[in-house]
Design goal:
It is built from 15 helices and 13 strands. With about 375 residues, the chain is α/β, with parallel strands linked by helices. The chain has 2 domains: about 5-265, 3-Layer(aba) Sandwich (Rossmann fold); about 275-370, Rhodanese-like domain (Oxidized Rhodanese, domain 1, 3-Layer(aba) Sandwich). The strands form 2 sheets. The protein has an 8-stranded mixed sheet, with helices on both faces. Helix 4 packs across helix 10 (about 195-210).
Length: about 375
């Protein structure tokens, strides 16, 4: 039964047809695991805590960075440098001291996913990488937990509920991940700050609907949101009888090597991670000595506006159409750089396949340059 204090706190819920006191009691008895305490996880955690979800688990191993504050509204400037879960716990407990918070200071991995996901009623996926999305999906299917999904990029978002009875799972819609590097991360491509707030709020709403039983959850449907044009579309998504995880004859029954799964590709830009590298200190020395080499920047022009250490800009997506520009350097050294070393590593692998044997990857990219050489270079 609700106490007098709870009736006051949740009075606006109690007035709602479809929720009322019975629905609020379901919320207080429920447990939700939020995977990722970033752009999506921040509004999800805030609204689930405010709604009175009795036990909320947060999974994250990161610290608050100043670049998070443009969209991760759970944190403030004074939290920069703190572990995200410490900062999140302080804010959420202040928002609603009634709730129980479980802080999992770790990444979700194949080793811990079944233990963590199995301990909660449902999961909200706030991750930003394909490896964890497929892992969350698979374990949710095996443990019978609904998976409230969202993804964001620039001005666009996708929201759905996977793994619910009668509905599809994530693999039914996306059986294979895209080729490595073909979908830039938000750190590489940017994201409008309010977008994860909108998408995360919709995820919180879906979680509340699943818990209380009111409304029509996004099972078998996916919302496509474009905030640039203020357009919202809803697509039907059906279970795939041939799905490797939830289909009629599944072929995957336990966690796989998700890093390898998401790295496998026939894309010509795919590379083996065993490629030659150059450290930022060596690049600094070579720039100072005016060696005859090409510093190739494969980031996007918008990234160059944030951090510029010189070099020739040919965005990764344009490279195949601009290979002729590199012909004069085929017998010379080329140092390829990006933000973190991931995209540039793929480019180096491709260039070496094309006969550019002097191509090397700048280990750590702009982030390493800012950290080790010039702190005035902005990170993002």
């Amino acid at each position: 039964m609700l106490t007098a204090a709870q009736k006051e706190r949740y009075s606006r819920h109690l007035l709602l047809p479809g929720i009322g006191a019975a629905g609020q009691e379901k919320l207080l008895a429920a447990s939700v695991l939020v995977v990722g305490a970033g752009g999506l996880g921040a509004p999800v955690a805030l609204y689930l805590a405010a709604a009175g979800v009795g036990r909320i688990g947060l999974v994250d191993d990161d610290v608050v960075d100043v670049s998070n504050l443009q969209r991760q509204v759970l944190y403030g400037t004074s939290d920069v440098g703190m572990h995200k879960l410490d900062a999140a716990a302080a804010r959420l407990r202040d928002l609603n001291p009634d709730i129980q918070l479980d802080l999992h200071r770790e990444r979700l991995t194949s080793a811990n996913a079944e233990r963590l996901i199995g301990a909660y009623d449902l999961v909200v996926d706030g991750t930003d990488n394909f490896q964890t999305r497929y892992l969350v999906n698979d374990v949710c299917v095996w443990t019978g937990r609904p998976n409230v999904f969202a993804s964001i990029y620039r001005f666009d978002a996708q929201i759905s509920v996977f793994g619910a009875p009668g509905g599809p799972c994530y693999r039914c819609v996306f059986p294979e991940p895209p080729p490595p590097g073909s979908v830039p991360s938000c750190a590489e491509g940017g994201v409008l700050g309010v977008l994860p707030g909108v998408a995360g709020s919709l995820q919180a709403a879906e979680a509340i609907k699943l818990i209380t039983g009111f409304g029509e959850p996004l099972v078998g449907r996916m919302v496509l949101l474009d905030v640039a044009s203020a357009q919202i579309r809803t697509l039907s998504v059906d279970p795939d009888p041939d799905c490797a995880v939830c289909g009629t004859h599944p072929s995957i029954f336990e966690p796989i090597d998700y890093d390898a799964f998401c790295a496998s590709s026939t894309d010509p830009m795919f590379f083996s991670p065993r490629i030659p590298e150059i450290q930022v200190s060596e690049l600094r020395d070579r720039l100072a000595s005016e060696d005859d080499f090409l510093l190739l920047d494969v980031r996007n022009p918008e990234e160059l506006d944030i951090a510029d250490i010189g070099g020739t800009l040919i965005p990764m997506g344009d490279l195949m159409n601009r290979m002729a520009e590199l012909d004069p350097w085929k017998e010379k050294d080329i140092v390829v750089m990006c933000r973190s070393g991931a995209r540039s590593g793929q480019v180096v692998g491709y260039l070496r396949q094309q006969g550019f044997e002097g191509a090397k990857n700048l280990a750590g990219g702009i982030l390493a340059w800012s950290r080790e050489i010039d702190a005035s270079i902005a990170t993002y």
